[in-house]
Amino acid sequence: VNRKDDNQIPKAVVTRLSLYLRELQQFLRSGQETISSNKLGRTLGITGAQVRKDFAYFGQFGFPGIGYRCEHLTNEIKRILGTNRIWPVALIGCGNMGRALLGYKGFAKQGFQVLAAFDTNSDLVGSGIEGIPVNSLDDLTAVLTMKKIQLAILAVPTDSAQDVAEKLVKAGVIGILNFAPVTLNLPNRVAIVGVDLALELEQLSFSVAKKAVNERERNLSNRSKNAP
Amino acid sequence: VNRKDDNQIPKAVVTRLSLYLRELQQFLRSGQETISSNKLGRTLGITGAQVRKDFAYFGQFGFPGIGYRCEHLTNEIKRILGTNRIWPVALIGCGNMGRALLGYKGFAKQGFQVLAAFDTNSDLVGSGIEGIPVNSLDDLTAVLTMKKIQLAILAVPTDSAQDVAEKLVKAGVIGILNFAPVTLNLPNRVAIVGVDLALELEQLSFSVAKKAVNERERNLSNRSKNAP
DNA sequence: AGCTGTGAACCGTTTCACAGCC
DNA sequence: GGCTGTGAAACGGTTCACAGCT
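Structure tokens for the assembled complex are given below, as produced in the milestone run.
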């Protein structure tokens, strides 16, 4: 057979796909019908060639001389990302972060519906937060099976993250959005995306510190230019 | 002069730096004194060579035959990231997400201290959330100047994100952690890190969908192997 | 023997440039 | 004229392999 196992799409491409989607939805809201690769790239600080190459991984969506039709392209990207349907999602851990995520409207807007919350705190179990019922972790498998949930948002304390993650996998979860600042160790078949908020601030700190250094150096070299 | 303007560290390297730091802090807590590049890499699913090359951008931190001393390396990475000091931070937007972030303990642990919150809701202004005073957006410049704040966490509604971001820049902010799902348009001197939660779920959706496709294909090729 | 630091080879992504189409 | 889609070239990051240190 001539089958290539070359199914590997660069991670950077998939990230940009989401960004394109975000911009396209913006364009759609403002009534824009079509968009060129260059203009779409401009809004994100990348080149038109990059945009076109990214789409080329998945097919031909554009019209020479015209550009891309916003609505059509939006649908294609959703299909590629797998968000052209509604994903039921579970949220584990109803602490500060968990509760905020339960109230976050942005998930539903992109097709993710949080249908069940879980916590170990028996005071919370049985109640509802933001209209979402809170279950005991003991009922994980039962609830997830019944509601056909395969994606989970993990917002538990760092120390229990690995344990709970393993329970999720046993309960049939195949994708985890992990907010705990640890590297989860799970079977390869499980997809993991980590969001470490402190880490993001560290990246900011580095950028800022670096810019400061660059500016200092620029000043020094200016000075030596003025008085060599 | 022999000055290279080649100050550019790959973004991926800086991200891994934060991950190394996270693992090292874990090792330190468990009493580990030294660590080899291979073992450190293993915990993150990358090669030892990668680890060593990453550090090589910044200097020589290891000891041949021994590895790296966890505590020493931790300090070096903090110095590089600029988190070997305490950063005062402001948080803008005390909605669901903002309030959760005010209560997030992970920031302080890595050296980020949220000293002031801001909101437009006059009911909140004057109160405190998680012990942090809520100010009016009108007092932005005054408060930021007084508290010497240069970093901000932006957790306002999407529609006002760009406006508020511009106000932040005018008030002296040089780094923004942006939770609104939009591309901020700001002067180059301002560092921006975006966290788009729905986008992260989309990445998860893609991984999961892709895995499903791969498995289906594997099944098909198995079947044709069995009955060719 | 064990492990780092690093030049060199390798590989994948980005940019370029242009043929082809509207 | 404007824009896409795409080979080819250029670039940059990752992996390899080994000299050198402990």
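The two ends of chain A are 69 Å apart (CA to CA). Chain A touches chain B through 70 residues (CB under 8 Å). Further analysis is deferred to the final report.
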